[in-house]
Amino acid sequence: MRTFSILTFVTIAGLMALIAGPAGAAVIAEDDFSDEAVDGGSGWAGDWQGEFDLRSSGDIGTPPHLRLSGGESISRAVDLSGWLDVTLTFDVDKEGGLPDGDEFLTEFFDGTTWQEVDRWTLTSSYDDAPVQMNLDLSSYTMAASSEIRFTATGSTGDQGFDRFEFDNVTVNGIPEPASLALLGLGGLCMLGRRQRA
């Protein structure tokens, strides 16, 4: 009788998890640099690493924000294991008179390999206003050792002027379905088997 009660509870709990459906998107990690430090924000697995300037004035977002000069890059680790439909959003802007062709590169580390996610190239049609980037990372492998990297490529060779500023970095995702649903399905199978016996 006790076994039947436990199986019934597990089955009901599992069915409730299945009925509840998928969870909504949640913020995994964020940083708006408001604390003016490389270890700010929340949800990250480490500090910002690389070459950059922390700017307390300027045009993008609400200062402070980060600035990368040509050839500089910055990365930060985030544990993405257990997350689905992951997106990366941030605001990016050029500083001063960047020439056409300068690039801002966004890359993702899946625990094994760095992969290019986006390459934003300046053109003469750019109106010198912050751009919000919304990048889909769901096609990459999510890992506990995932990282995100931003690079000002310095592709035009004008190292003194090819600077990009960015701010409001957010990683969003949907948690994987609870294992309770699988437990409930197992309970259903065992209950069905017990009733046949």
Fold and architecture overview:
The chain has 197 residues and is an alpha+beta fold. Helices cover 19% and strands 37% of the residues. The chain has two helices and eleven strands; from the N terminus they run H-E-E-E-E-E-E-E-E-E-E-E-H. The strands form two sheets. Strands 1, 3, 4, 6, 9 and 11 form a six-stranded antiparallel beta sheet that branches. The chain has a five-stranded antiparallel beta sheet with strand order 2-5-10-7-8, with no helix packed on it. Helix 1 crosses helix 2. The radius of gyration is 23 Å and the shape is elongated. It starts with a helix and ends with a helix. The mean pLDDT is 79.
Short description:
The chain has 197 residues and is an alpha+beta fold. Helix content is 19%, strand content 37%. It has 2 domains: 1-21 and 177-197; 23-176, Galactose-binding domain-like (Jelly Rolls, Sandwich).
Topology:
Layout lengths: L1 H19 L5 E6 L17 E2 L2 E3 L9 E4 L4 E5 L5 E13 L7 E7 L4 E8 L9 E6 L10 E6 L10 E13 L3 H18 L1
Antiparallel strand pairs: 1-11, 2-5, 3-4, 4-11, 5-10, 6-9, 6-11, 7-8, 7-10
Helix pairs in contact: 1-2
Rg is: 23 Å
Unreliable spans? none
* CATH fold title of the largest domain: Jelly Rolls
**How much helix is in the residues?**
10-25%
End-to-end separation in angstroms reads 14 Å
State the CATH class of the largest domain: Mainly Beta
Order of helices and strands: HEEEEEEEEEEEH
Largest sheet features? 6 strands, antiparallel
Strand content: 35-45%
What is the structural class? alpha+beta
Write the CATH architecture name of the largest domain: Sandwich
The average pLDDT is: 79
CATH superfamily (homologous) name of the largest domain: Galactose-binding domain-like
Globally, the shape reads elongated
Please, how many domains?
A: 2
Number of helices: 2
Extended strand count? 11
